[in-house]
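Backbone-to-sequence.
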C-alpha cells in the first residue's frame, strides 16, 4: 500500500500550481502598440488619394477599382491582425480590440460597397457618382475612428496609448490626413 501511495505521489504535480505572473505596465504598453500598429496599416492606406484620369473612362474605373481594392485589403489585414490581439494583457483588451475591429469593419464595408457600385457602373458618370457617394460618407469613417479613440479612454488604456509609438504615429497620421 505504501509503495502504491509513493507511486501516485511521484506522478502527481510537485506542488500547487503557480499563478501566472500579472502583466506589467510595459506589457500593456507593448500590446497597445500592436493594436495601434494594426489600425495604422489601414489609416496609412487611406491617407492617399486615388489617381483619377477623367480623360479615359476605362482607366478612371480601373484606377478607382484598384484604389478601393487595395484599401479594402488593408482594412481586412488590420482586422485579422486585431483578432490575434483580442486576449491582451489588460482586462478590457477584448473590448478595445472589438471596437477597433468594428470600426475597421465599417470602413471595409464602405469600401466594398463603393467597389460593388463602381463595378456595376456603365459610364464615367456612374463611376464618379459611386466614388462621390463614398466621399460623402467619409464622416462615418471618421466617426468610427472617434469611437475607437473614445474606447481607449473608457477602457483605461489611454495612458498606455500615450506611451505607445504606433499610437503616436496613428494620431499624427489621423491629424495630417487629407481633407475630405
Amino acid at each position: 500500500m505504501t509503495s502504491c501511495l509513493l507511486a501516485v505521489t511521484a506522478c502527481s504535480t510537485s506542488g500547487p500550481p503557480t499563478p501566472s505572473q500579472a502583466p506589467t505596465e510595459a506589457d500593456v504598453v507593448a500590446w497597445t502598440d500592436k493594436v495601434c500598429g494594426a489600425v495604422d496599416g489601414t489609416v496609412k492606406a487611406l491617407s492617399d488619394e486615388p489617381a483619377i484620369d477623367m480623360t479615359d473612362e476605362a482607366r478612371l474605373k480601373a484606377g478607382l477599382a484598384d484604389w478601393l481594392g487595395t484599401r479594402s485589403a488593408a482594412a481586412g489585414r488590420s482586422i485579422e491582425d486585431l483578432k490575434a490581439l483580442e486576449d491582451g494583457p489588460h482586462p478590457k483588451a477584448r473590448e478595445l480590440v472589438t471596437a477597433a475591429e468594428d470600426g475597421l469593419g465599417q470602413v471595409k464595408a464602405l469600401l466594398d460597397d463603393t467597389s460593388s457600385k463602381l463595378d456595376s457602373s456603365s459610364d464615367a458618370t456612374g463611376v464618379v457618382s459611386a466614388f462621390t457617394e463614398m466621399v460623402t460618407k467619409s464622416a462615418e469613417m471618421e466617426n468610427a475612428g472617434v469611437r475607437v479613440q473614445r474606447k481607449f479612454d473608457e477602457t483605461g488604456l489611454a495612458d498606455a496609448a500615450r506611451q505607445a509609438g504606433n499610437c503616436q504615429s496613428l494620431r499624427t497620421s489621423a491629424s495630417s490626413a487629407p481633407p475630405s
